[in-house]
Fold this protein.
Amino acid sequence: MTSPRGWFIACILCLAVQTAQAQDRVTYLPDGAAKPITAIGDVVDFTGAELQLKGANSIQRIPAARVQQIETQYQPEHLQGRSLLEQGDTSAAITTLRKALEKEPRAWVDREILSLIVKADLRQQDLSGALRDFQSIITTDPESRAWGIAPLIWSPQVVSDSVRKDMQSWLEGNRRAEQLLAASILLLDPAQGEAAERRLMALTRDTHPILSAYSKAQLWRLDLTNRQVSDVSLERWRDLIERLPQELRPGPQYLLSRGHEVRGELQASAEEALWLPYVYAENELLAARALLDAGESLNRSGFTAESQTLYRELVARYPWSRDAALAKSRITGTQ
């Protein structure tokens, strides 16, 4: 039988172990420093604006852009779901990640899990699910670091009537982030396109830097549709992209590549497109599409061998994508 003193010591040791396990390690670059440092504590929250780290006596606020790495403990289902997604088992990944979401008590980790689910939704061409899950992210973090994988329309995409109907209510609502998502989806809609364009024009003046920049970039799609892309346009587009954080560049970068394509500048189009799979690869759908487009541009320019290499890479890296099926047909010569 354990003595009262032994029970007390055991409890203290157990508490110490739990406390040690709960400690997070955050590596970040302090303002004006040449090398990063690591701080230890409990991450209270991590948004697109800042990370809050609770220490022994206070809460330290670290700008999100300066955070380089977080070491923390994750639910087993979180790790398993991420692994399943990497292996290409998308359905199982979604099921496992939703279980992790039920167990995870930390809001900032919930958003990380949701960002993985959004990627999985998009893999399955579930635009409605992606919009719903992304909405859950931006409800608590409007400046989310996940905007780079948001279900916005950058490349050609089929939109169901039910999604269009849902987006009409979002467009008319008062939540600006939802307005951007809705305007993106409805921009080329025959019935709602003009209202969507007006909403994007208004959002270009928004004080929220992501909403403003992405609204400007979404309007580029009209220039592409009208095939009116000037040298000044391309210079302005490139300037906006260079001012964006890297994780937010995939969509605008893709449109830049299409700008060169409509001008008949095929090699330049391929060069700009290849930034996505090799540098801005977090947005998988766009990275896959960019590989296909780059292959097409190079093939039309007479670089057949190079285009075949890109088609094979697309099939190998993104076998689940619609673009992989098109790439296979290009490799086999059936189209």
Q: What stands out?
A: The chain has a mean pLDDT of 92. The longest strand covers residues 37-46. The chain is about 60% helix and 10% strand.
